């Protein structure tokens, strides 16, 4: 194994550990601060059990999605794909003609919708973008996990925010003099909760914006690179009406209905769309070709 590759693996492992801690620490804090105290009261015991299960399930889904998106190959030349992949795969690219270029770095023909990633040092199939946060490219085979990671992270933060605020209000509004005095005097605790609340709001807005953007792109059968590239071409100079029309036509050509568009990355429409399990990539008429495409 080359030194470069070892460094990449160590860096990725370090990054993954850091992000996993970022997920686990707030979870443990919420359990300890908001959920467990409700267990001491008979009237809130059952709701405490319910919240414990829900918080644990959501945290597990966030972690599984994150580990999968960062460790799954986004798809490249060397994956064990059938040579007929590009003929079989129902891709309709908005830039298909322009994308059929030779990659001088990989020294081979660049497939449709593939782009060379300078961080990964290879061409990635249906590359969306290279994400520093996951230390990996987001491409054909792991975009589903990326979207699910954003979805579950967004849901978890919203839920934890609700628990944090509910518990804080409960404690602060407690009419017991001793309790009230203690809580108002505990400035460091209030500061911690305040900081946590503000951080949660900021992170929630960022993650939800990314999620909405990903859903919009998938719904239109586009990647971030294609969208940004088209925007640059269109808005980098004066846009003539026919250019705008051309872009809209290209968009319409790629758009084969949102179910088909999502299937490109999420696989056959089913409950598995919302679960962090490998998608069944499909071909003509949504017929699964086992081992042809997904075995990477
Ligand atoms: Zn390349
Ligand atoms: Zn990359």
TrEMBL record:
<feature type="domain" description="Palmitoyltransferase DHHC">
    <location>
        <begin position="97"/>
        <end position="227"/>
    </location>
</feature>
<dbReference type="GO" id="GO:0019706">
    <property type="term" value="F:protein-cysteine S-palmitoyltransferase activity"/>
</dbReference>
<keyword id="KW-0472">Membrane</keyword>
<keyword id="KW-0012">Acyltransferase</keyword>
<protein>
    <recommendedName>
        <fullName>Palmitoyltransferase</fullName>
        <ecNumber>2.3.1.225</ecNumber>
    </recommendedName>
</protein>
<keyword id="KW-1133">Transmembrane helix</keyword>
<dbReference type="InterPro" id="IPR039859">
    <property type="entry name" value="PFA4/ZDH16/20/ERF2-like"/>
</dbReference>
<feature type="transmembrane region" description="Helical">
    <location>
        <begin position="145"/>
        <end position="165"/>
    </location>
</feature>
<keyword id="KW-0808">Transferase</keyword>
<feature type="transmembrane region" description="Helical">
    <location>
        <begin position="190"/>
        <end position="212"/>
    </location>
</feature>
<keyword id="KW-0812">Transmembrane</keyword>
<dbReference type="Pfam" id="PF01529">
    <property type="entry name" value="DHHC"/>
</dbReference>
<dbReference type="InterPro" id="IPR001594">
    <property type="entry name" value="Palmitoyltrfase_DHHC"/>
</dbReference>
<feature type="transmembrane region" description="Helical">
    <location>
        <begin position="9"/>
        <end position="29"/>
    </location>
</feature>
<dbReference type="GO" id="GO:0016020">
    <property type="term" value="C:membrane"/>
</dbReference>
<comment type="similarity">
    <text>Belongs to the DHHC palmitoyltransferase family.</text>
</comment>
<feature type="transmembrane region" description="Helical">
    <location>
        <begin position="49"/>
        <end position="69"/>
    </location>
</feature>
